[in-house]
Amino acid sequence: MTKSLKWKAKIFIVQGHPNWVTVVAWIFWIGTVADLSAQPPDPFNESCHRIYEEILKLNFREAKSQLEIFSRDHLSPERKGAVLLLYNELDFYQLFLTGSFTEFSAKKSNREQRIKTLGKLKLAEPWQKFMHAEINLHWAMMHVKFGEEIKGIQLLISGKQLLEQLAEDYPEFYYYKKSLGILLALLSTIPSEYQWAGKLVGLDGDIRTGKSMLLDFIEQAEKDQSVFYQEAIAAYSFIRCYLENKPLEGFQFWGHKMRKTDLAPVHVWTEAKLAFKAGYNQSAALVLQTLPPSHRDRLPELWFLQGLANLQSLELDQADQNFTHYLKLDGGKDHIKEVWQKRAWIALLKGNLPNYHLYQSNCLTLGDNIGEGNQQAYLDAKSGHKPDTLLLKARLLCDGGFGLRALQILKDQEPLFAHESSHSLEYHYRMGRIYQSINQPEQSLLYFAKVLETQQIQNYLFANAQLQSGLIREGLFQRNQALKDYEAVLKLRPDRYQRSLHQKAKAGISRLQLK
Questions:
Q1: What's the mean per-residue pLDDT of the chain?
Q2: For residue 189, what pLDDT band results from cuts at 50, 70 and 90?
Q3: Which H or E element spans position 419?
Q4: Chain-centroid distance, C-alpha 150
Q5: Nearest to 278 by CA among 401, 407, 398
Q6: What does the pLDDT look like over 129-144, one tens digit per residue?
Q7: Neighbour count for residue 495 (Cβ, 10 Å)
Q8: How far from chain centre, in Å, is Cα 172?
Q9: Burial degree of 116 (CB within 10 A; 0-12, 13-18, 19+)
Q10: Nearest one of 162, 155, 212, 202 to 182, comparing CA atoms
Q11: DSSP class per residue in 309-326
């Protein structure tokens, strides 16, 4: 029963009534109304589901056309709210996946207009708060993506506060568990040095609570065939895969829940990312090939991922073709420097030094530095350091899940790299990663220990060797030593990947504190 309804019931009783049976009946009726208001009917009907499917397929014109037709009908306030949220979903997927900063700037005023419209609809309070929170959270992610972090954080705080109010006032309205669960899990990875600031503005999290909420939502959403069911499956899979460092479990959860679903481009992207993280390069390649080329063109990153799958199995010509196609697409903006780096590697492995130097030059002049992949490509090109071809092949194969092939390349080659400290450090790091990938943790720890003995604390490979040592020891239930490894990572300031390394170390500490 909501606070307002409890108050009305008390006033009614205090005022008195000649028939106590009527009083009891009235209170019971109020309780029934409260339960219904706590979980009002789902406003997303079959038409809304079809429109959302078109959005996930990235058929943006068709989705917009259907929304315009649907909007002409005489709709209830809740249904109008659903239409408003679907328009926002359309903006989100367009801008977040394929949009430019110019397009973002032109559309970002849509958020305020939609919030105003939502406030005038007079729909049920749980849906009003939920939709308000969803709109804010979508735009929070877009503001952060396009470099407006302060505004993004403000919207994140607003969205979290709305969801927490929903949880308190309408605990039976289970929809809040989807978004609040995701937020709590993500916010649990705030690095230690920023936790005080996060708590100050209400941005603290708890991965266990977040996971529990998300699973509760998934269970109920599956029964109700909620429009947000697949989104929640993807979010839970990524939490298992990336935040909990259980990529196999994340990949399997996704596959089990989505096995009967026709995969849209967004689903293929999700499955490919999970497969890569789990070390299933061939599974990623296969799912990417399930979409015809015209559908992959709607989400250019799928061509990038296809090229990556080819490269990590050393299918160099096919990889270069897919990277080249990615560059030709208008939407191929997110991985420009990274793609030129990968093409430079292909040229180097094929012995084409002129193209190698040309493509490395393109890393410096083309694309932007947004994203760690692009930043890494730029820094590599700027350093002028040319990778060793044996180490590069081993790296690519290991990243693709071909650990035994990588081991064949590098095994017994230590004397070859002993003369140069940077190559020696990388050799030991690569051997550690290879043994880690083929489930030989003790051997892996020995090689990571050799990396840490170098005391090259500014090198990101040093920091990652420390992190991976923690992950291995966590898997071996060596809790105290794993905690020391993660805490050591947070004290390092590596030349690259600092934010990512610190976030993973923080996630490890969070997991261990819950055990």
A1: 85
A2: low
A3: none
A4: 20
A5: 401
A6: 999 999 999 999 999 8
A7: 15
A8: 27
A9: exposed
A10: 212
A11: HHHTTT-HHHHHHHHHHH
